[in-house]
């Protein structure tokens, strides 16, 4: 997928989830779009973060279970949508940011983060397989181990960059979008408009009603 179309699509899909009020239908469509265009690879990332979903649902028993379920579904959807980044080459994502006039230092930082994230997801999968336990204690151990591993991973990456004289000069590529890229962009835009236009229609229609009918 072409980098610019991918980033704009991620923006529209993510915004759709928010503007719809975490609607299940909108989340389902956004999730389906991301799964299709990542060829199912987004499912691995969504599954890797299962411990976080459990913690969110558990918090729902203390506050509002229905809202916690909506947040869990929305969170899983946003994770899946975010993995659309990996349907493009990292150089094209950097090229898209350069095209949008983002500073090179910022682009280089994002490029590095996108490169490291798959390693963190893999770490989380391995931790989930190794850690023993049941119930809430199991998820606490996973969280502690994951935080520790993430810190160690960050330190090792920082040392490697320092030793190679990292200069915040991104490697980027910009190419012409293809039909599949435009299809993704169009689907994302239509989903976003479907969440915004009904709201505007309701507001305009309610303004025309007499006060007794509002």
Shape: flat
Let me know the largest β-sheet: none
Q: Roughly how much helix do the residues carry, as a percent range?
A: over 70%
Outline the low-pLDDT stretches. Answer: 200-214
* Subunit arrangement of the protein: single chain
Mean pLDDT level? 80
Give me the number of helical elements. 9
Structural class designation: mainly alpha
Number of β-strand runs: 0
Determine Rg (CA atoms, Å): 20 Å
What would you note in describing this structure?
This protein is mainly α. It has one domain. The protein is 77% helix and 0% strand. Helix 1 packs across helix 6, helix 2 runs parallel beside helix 5 and helix 2 packs antiparallel against helix 9. The longest helix is centred in the C-terminal third of the chain and has 30 residues. The N and C termini lie far apart (47 Å). The C terminus is likely disordered.
Topology:
Blueprint: H1 3-19, H2 24-37, H3 42-48, H4 50-62, H5 65-82, H6 90-99, H7 104-130, H8 135-163, H9 179-208
Helix pairs in contact: 1-5, 1-6, 1-9, 2-5, 2-9, 3-5, 4-5, 4-8, 6-7, 7-8
What are the key terms here?
214 residues; flat
Concise overview:
This protein is mainly α and 214 residues long. The chain is built from 9 helices and no strands. The chain has one domain.
């Amino acid at each position: 997928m072409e980098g610019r179309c991918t980033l704009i699509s991620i923006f529209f899909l993510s915004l759709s989830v928010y503007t719809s009020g975490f609607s299940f239908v909108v989340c389902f469509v956004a999730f389906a779009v991301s799964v299709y265009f990542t060829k199912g690879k987004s499912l691995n990332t969504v599954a890797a973060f299962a411990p976080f979903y459990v913690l969110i649902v558990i918090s729902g028993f203390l506050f509002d279970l229905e809202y916690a379920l909506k947040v869990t579904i929305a969170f899983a959807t946003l994770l899946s949508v975010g993995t659309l980044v990996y349907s493009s080459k990292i150089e094209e994502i950097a090229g898209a940011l350069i095209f949008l006039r983002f500073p090179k230092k910022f682009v280089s930082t994002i490029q590095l983060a996108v490169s490291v994230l798959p390693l963190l997801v893999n770490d989380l999968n391995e931790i989930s397989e190794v850690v023993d336990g049941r119930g809430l204690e199991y998820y606490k151990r996973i969280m502690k181990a994951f935080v520790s591993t993430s810190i160690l991973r960050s330190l090792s990456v920082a040392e490697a960059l320092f030793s190679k004289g990292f200069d915040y000069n991104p490697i980027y590529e910009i190419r012409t979008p293809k039909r599949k890229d435009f299809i993704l962009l169009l689907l994302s835009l239509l989903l976003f408009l479907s969440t915004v236009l009904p709201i505007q229609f309701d507001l305009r229609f309610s303004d025309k009603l007499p006060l007794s009918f509002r």
